[in-house]
Amino acid sequence: MNSTENGERTVLATFTSVFQGVADELIPLMQERFPELGLLREDYIEMTWIESILFWNQLSNETSEILLDRSNRNSLVPLSYKSKSDYVRKPMPEIALQGLWSRLLKVNETSTAIVNIISYGGKMDEIPETETPFPHRKGTLYKINYNIVWQEEENSNPQRYISWMRTLYSYMGPFVSKSPRAAYVNYRDLDIGRNNDDGKTSYKQASVWGRKYFKNNFDRLVYVKTKIDPENFFKHEQSIPPRFH
Q1: Residue 180 falls within a domain, yes or no?
Q2: Which end is more exposed in the chain, N or C (fewer Cβ atoms within 10 Å of the end residue's Cβ)?
Q3: Span 192-203, pLDDT tens digits
Q4: Does 213 participate in catalysis according to the annotation?
């Protein structure tokens, strides 16, 4: 969220990207594809891969040693948040974005709403769903990551933020992937299901979230789990159960 000069709330859009090469390779490409940007050599920042990790985590002023400090908490990382995700395989109509913007503007001033749209395509579009457990490559236009964050002192009433997120997620349903409505496993979302507290979860129950994360690869992962860990020793809220549990 952002504010205009006259104090009205608006949506701030930023575009960040990484080119896996050197600036001299990227400059002619950008001049050909996006000449209207008028980018100059000094507009490009070259960095190593590990430096890019610092950049993406807003730690550009730190050295890579900070990544070894597991107790470190970047002051920009929220203490409380709710996150959900979607995958998009067909272009969304303009009306979908208009509805998204209007809902972002309804967030109260004690919280921040962020929607990340991560483009796919390119080389990823050549990798079929069955190539690896992660299926969301070929045919996927982009991934959406919805976030709402709030300060720790607001934890007395977190439900209002969680409810806002669930309402937004419901609104986006018609415009994203279907059967299943896919999700990104690393943005673990317990709203879509979880294992029983005793660790004994049926294949049918786990399929609810398992197919959202892995599509038909879920069956292959269940097979591996059953073979390697039949007693389900290694588990968490959305781990894959053995077949006979």
Answers
A1: no
A2: N
A3: 999 988 878 889
A4: no
